[in-house]
Amino acid sequence: MASENTPDDLHDLELEALAVALRENRPEPTREFADRLDTAVTDHFPPEWSENVTHRSNTSFFQRLKERFEGGRQVLLPATAGLAGLLVVAVVVGVGMNGDGGTTDTISSTSDSSVSESTGAAGGGSAGTIENAAPSPSTAAPELYTKGNQSGGANSQFQDSGEQLTYGDDAVRTSKSPGAYAAGVNDRKVAQEADITLGTDPENVQDVSNDIVEVVDDRGGIVLDSSVLDGPAGQAGASFSLLIPSAQLESAVSDLSGIADLRSRSQETEDITAPTLTVEDSLRDSRARVDSLVKELSEATTTEDRNRIEDDLALERRQAARLSTKLNRLERRANLTPVGVTVETGGDTSASGDDSSWGIGEAIDDAGNMLGVSAGVALIALAIAIPIGLVVLIALALNRAWVRHSRRRALKEN
Amino acid sequence: MNVMLEALPRTTDPQIRSFEDLYRQSRDDVYAYVAGLLRDRVAAEDVTALAFERAYRKWEKFNPERGTARGWLFGIARNAALDELRKRKREAPLTHDPAAAEAVAESGEDLERQASVARALATLPAADRELVSLKFYAGLTNAEIAETTEISPSNVGTRIHRAMTKLRNACQEELTNGI
């Protein structure tokens, strides 16, 4: 039989015998170890088992960490979903807040309306109250106003015919068009004045001031007076008294309003056509009287007549000079508009004091603000947590790769 | 394929419905495999216990669609055994091998041959010793070995045959040296 086997058959027979020997020589666990392990399985590997078994000391930190991590995988999905939901909310709120862009507009329009009310109350319909309603320009260009309104007999007509208008933010734009207000009048003389309050941070006061001066220069205006004060929020600020060519007023006010956060803006308009015409007529009459007196003087024959005429002539010339000055002032008042600009820092006090009611709209606004703040905090937390999480994940992945490599190497080297 | 390369007949129920079923079917097989690979009885006990504890903790996450329960368990045991190898840096021989001891004690010719086989196995590289242990100590099928070691199933048979040839040569050297 043996002589019939080929070398391959012999080889296979040897290997088969080797396999039998291996199976018969298989290592078996000791009874003691088997019983101990049986008990552990029956007791579901109690904690004291883990503490007593020596292999615990052989388990690496990363393996224990990994086991704990895998043990918590059941909560991983809901936690991830929650995190993703939070991220979506944060992004949506963030985009919503950025896309809104109307916060400043809303504030400014609110303060505009309140300022419109306050200036309306200060107006009252007589030209004299204009001075009270224009504190900043009155300090800068007092002659244009006070003297113009206190100039004697013609002033009564001037005040009676003077028309004061107070406009809010929107009304400013419409009133500037020479439509309904100046309808039917070819050469209306209109005196205007404006007040603007801007808000900014203390460190930006100087920049805002520079921008204001730049706008004035661009519009051909004059800075009559200015003061800039440094300090903390609430104390730092600036004030400007400006004269802007009336033809440039609308664009100048628009530019000035855009320099910083617009807190309030008021503009008053007064029709001075009637007083101007009155002064013009009076001046024309006065000059005619002067001419007449000059003619009389040339025809006077007696010394007494000559002296009397010369006295009248001197009086009339002074009157003509006064009227001429008055007319010049009125024309300057129509051509140059005083603009007061105040730069404030700190909170917007003009808007906070008036509105004490709190309703659904405010509640929604507050809720939106709270949501925005929460989303911001969440975004910041995510911005911190995500890189840390990525680093941890990369570390775990590297450790896993390293362990696999080490195991393969251990298998090769042993 | 050679008959001797077939796995040991499975006497246990292949339906493993619980961890206890898996444990009962695999305890001695896992131990035999780990002991064959590490050649250290104490370390084999530690690694076997660790493997079953890890398997118990992960049992609920075991997915039968991704492989057999035994293949999964032996993968855990393999990682634990390789970690032990990695930690030790160098192998220590089996401090107590009952089969070899019995062989010496009875001093029969067949038993002497078994002892020389055990010594020859110790001279094989760990990778070959692992395959031999998985096949003939633990009784895994080639598919289960492939699943455990991440070797392609078609390669498993070839590599086992190569390892057995090396073992046979080592046995012959043992016998020659013994004489």
- The computed structural class of chain A is alpha+beta
Low-confidence residue ranges of chain B: 1-13, 90-107
The sequence of SSEs of chain A as H and E is HHHHHHHHHHEHEHEEHEHHEHH
Quick one: biggest sheet of chain A? 6 strands, mixed
The parts of chain A where pLDDT drops under 50 for at least 5 residues are 99-185
Q: What's the SSE pattern of chain B?
A: HHHHHHHH
Q: What share of the residues of chain B lie within helices?
A: over 70%
Strand order of the largest sheet of chain A: 1-5-2-6-4-3
Q: What would you call the structural class of chain B?
A: mainly alpha
Shape of chain A: rod-shaped
Number of helices of chain A: 17
Overall description:
The complex is a heterodimer of chains A (about 425) and B (about 180). Chain A is built from 17 helices and 6 strands. Helices cover about 65% and strands about 15% of the residues of chain A. In chain A, α5 (about 75-100) packs across α17 (about 360-414), α9 crosses α15 and α10 packs antiparallel against α14 (about 275-300). A 6-stranded mixed sheet of chain A has the order 1-5-2-6-4-3. Residues about 100-185 of chain A have low confidence and may be disordered. Chain B is mostly helical and about 180 residues long. Chain B contains 8 helices and no strands. Classes of the chains: A alpha+beta (about 425), B mainly alpha (about 180). At the A-B interface, α1, α2, α4 and α17 of A face α1, α2, α3, α4 and α5 of B.
What key attributes describe this structure?
heterodimer; A: 414 residues; alpha+beta; 6-stranded mixed sheet; 17 helices; 6 strands; 13% strand; B: 179 residues; mainly alpha; 8 helices; 72% helix
